[in-house]
Write a structure and sequence with these properties.
This protein is mostly helical and about 675 residues long. The protein is built from 25 helices and 5 strands. Strands 2-3-1-4-5 form a 5-stranded parallel β-sheet, sandwiched between helices. The two termini are about 45 Å apart.
């Protein structure tokens, strides 16, 4: 059977996007239904004040989702990574800790919501008129938060376990049940907003129950009771891997809080009052979220295609994929723009009727706030594109620019100048500015796609074994950049007559993954500070994760087969269970490292120190992320030596003497 990497690099782009995007779109749309169904029935059965109440309660649900996705997406990434490393027990601990964290925080958030609900509603812009409805709705919703958090956490992990259909089924079941129960509670039982909340909680409980049942059905792991015991290092790692999802959701909460408070403030000063703007704009944002769900689904489906082909240096396929994604996304956003501008009265009527002022403001809100929604067809895919190719800073900047950098300041500034209409103008302003930023960055990146970066590092020829030594030994050699560690490794290999493994890893990994050697050189053994921001939409492993797993497998295979020297790549940690492994760390003072970097790597003397610190920091991050250890911690090594003390040649001789004495070698 053809490997997935080959499929991503050879199959028709359109077919791949259909394969990956359609499930994403369905999942996101089903998720959006939960946010919208209540409002449709509440608007028709209770009136727009009921909808306004759900809008001020909604941020509490989003906060819950933020934690759920942090633990769920983080647990899913941890599961995929550890299974790739063949560390099944660690994978089980990660999933167990994810579930335990979600259970713990679900109780905390539930209690806080029940105890401080009135204060939270005030924080999210609730008015005195909306408060009775919001309290009736909010207290019941708060009771169901544990089901939301644990169920959502499990949903992400279930997908990572290779059961996306099961995860989708649980979501669809809950959404359909909510659609059935809402009219029963609201129209038949006449329970108003409380009935809508009860219907929602019942539906969430059913999804939760279906996902809980799956715990006994995991394909790749088996969870025993001890796996649910919280371990600080595991919990921290899981949370870190899911931090991108948390930030995205919390930024949305921040926007809603500012928006509702400004709508209340300036609405009171207008002919519409405070309640109509809060109600209407909440509905407008949720309808626009349906548009965004489709666009995000298309882009997320294309993410593995973009990521793989970028790593394989198949830039024509990257451009083809990006072009098709943008074409589809702009087509969707254009269609939505036409609807918002031509029939806003019909769209708002889905959520019930109101007086003349209500309808007037609804039409104004759709046409003004979403005036430049076409821009979403560029901005959203651009953020996910940068995420796919590992550009974490650009990805975060593009993704968060609209919400944090532009929308909130625009709401405050324009609201001060133009009142309630200024708050509506802010939507178009934020869309326009985010579009400009993302377009500029995208154009620059596309132009640079075909530029190849050449390695400046001095070439060290790999050493072939010239004779057999009588004992099996493996030397792992970690080193600071510019310390001469790589050359020391070469000398040790020559003196002992064993093979040196360093850059020959790159060719082997390239053959196995299909990723280009240039890409591997640029991305192995390093991890940027903001790299975890790239985990937000990935359902599987990124290219860099795959590199670590493949290199780990190769290191274990080589170490078990022959005596050798292995340079870098966290080999000392990967081989921690192996016997006959000598773990060495080479360091040096900064002046010496600067001189070597200048002499052998061609670095400018004035810039060398900054570059040395940058590269060593990337190595530290890499080690911390993948093996959970401190790179420079001396307790992780058998021998730490300053290469300046005797020079690189003498250092190599000393190390060889130690090896010969320890292993009683006669070389």
């Amino acid at each position: 059977m053809e490997k997935e990497e080959n499929i991503l690099g050879k199959e028709k782009i359109g077919k791949l996007i259909r394969k990956f995007s359609i499930p994403c779109i369905i999942s996101l749309l089903v998720n959006s239904l939960y946010n919208i169904v209540d409002q449709i029935f509440i608007g028709r059965g209770v009136g727009y004040l009921g909808n306004g109440a759900t809008n001020v309660v909604f941020p509490i649900t989003v906060i819950s989702l933020a934690f759920a996705l942090m633990f769920g997406d983080g647990g899913a990434a941890y599961l995929s990574l550890k299974l790739g490393e063949k560390k099944k027990e660690e994978a089980e601990k990660g999933v167990g800790n994810s579930i335990s964290l979600s259970a713990l925080f679900s109780v905390i958030i539930c209690v806080i919501s029940l105890v401080f609900l009135p204060q939270l509603l005030n924080l999210f812009g609730c008015t005195d008129i909306l408060k009775p409805f919001a309290l009736n709705y909010g207290y019941i919703i708060a009771i169901g938060l544990p089901f939301v958090i644990i169920g959502t956490t499990l949903n992400s992990i279930i997908r990572a376990d290779g059961s996306p259909k099961y995860a989708m089924t649980s979501m669809v079941t809950g959404a359909v049940l909510n659609i059935i129960l809402d009219p029963i509670f609201i129209f038949v039982l006449k329970t108003g907003v409380q009935g809508a909340a009860i219907a929602t909680v019942i539906s969430q409980f059913v999804t939760f129950l279906i996902n809980i049942i799956y715990i006994k059905k995991f394909k790749s792991i088996r969870l025993s009771k001890d796996k649910f015991i919280l371990k600080l290092n595991v919990s921290k790692k899981v949370s870190t891997l899911g931090i991108s999802s948390f930030i995205t959701q919390m930024s949305f909460v921040l926007v809603i809080a500012f928006e509702n408070n400004l709508l209340s403030k300036y609405g009171e000063l207008s002919e519409y009052g405070a309640e109509i703007p809060i109600t209407v704009l909440g509905i407008v944002m949720k309808i626009s979220q349906i548009l965004n769900s489709i666009i995000i689904g298309i882009a997320v489906g294309a993410q593995p295609i973009l990521g793989y082909n970028y790593g394989a240096k198949k830039f024509d396929r990257v451009k083809q994929t990006l072009k098709l994604v943008l074409y589809l996304s702009v087509a969707i956003s254009t269609f939505a723009f036409i609807l918002f501008q031509t029939i806003p009265d019909k769209l708002i009527s889905i959520f019930g009727s109101g007086d003349e002022k209500y309808m007037d403001f609804a039409c104004l809100a759709f046409r003004t706030y979403l005036m430049l929604c076409i821009c979403n067809g560029i901005q959203i895919p651009t953020g996910i594109f940068f995420q796919a190719i590992g550009k974490s800073i650009k990805s975060a900047g593009v993704s968060l620019s609209r919400q944090i950098l532009f929308l909130i300041p625009a709401m405050v500034l324009l609201g001060t100048i133009f009142g309630i209409k200024g708050v509506l103008y802010s939507g178009a302003v934020a869309d326009g500015l985010a579009f400009i930023v993302s377009t500029i960055l995208l154009i620059i990146e596309v132009k640079n796609l075909s530029k190849q970066k050449s390695s400046k590092n001095i070439e060290v020829k790999e050493v072939e074994s010239t004779k057999e030594i009588e004992k099996h030994i493996v030397i792992t050699l970690a080193r600071e950049y510019g310390s001469g560690g790589r050359y020391i490794g070469k000398l040790i290999a020559e003196k002992l007559g064993i093979k040196l493994y360093d850059k020959n890893f790159i060719t082997k990994i390239s053959e196995e993954t299909g990723l280009s050697e240039d890409y591997i050189k640029e991305n192995e053994q390093s991890r940027k500070n903001l790299a975890n921001l790239n985990n937000g939409y990935y359902n599987g492993l990124s290219n860099v994760d795959e590199l670590f797993i493949k290199e780990s497998e190769l290191i274990k295979e080589i170490a078990n087969k022959e005596s050798c020297v292995i340079v870098g790549r966290c080999a000392n940690f990967i081989l921690k269970e192996n016997k006959d492994v000598l773990k060495i760390f080479i360091y040096s003072d900064m002046d010496s490292k600067i001189n070597r970097a200048n002499k052998y790597y061609g670095l400018d003397i004035k810039k060398a120190e900054k570059e040395i610190k940058r590269i060593d920091k990337l190595r530290e991050n890499y080690c911390k992320h993948y093996v959970g250890k401190e790179w420079k911690d001396i307790t992780n090594y058998d021998l730490c030596i300053n290469s300046d003390l005797y020079g690189v040649e003498k250092t190599a001789e000393i190390i060889c003497s130690i090896i010969k004495e320890r292993y009683l070698l006669h070389v």
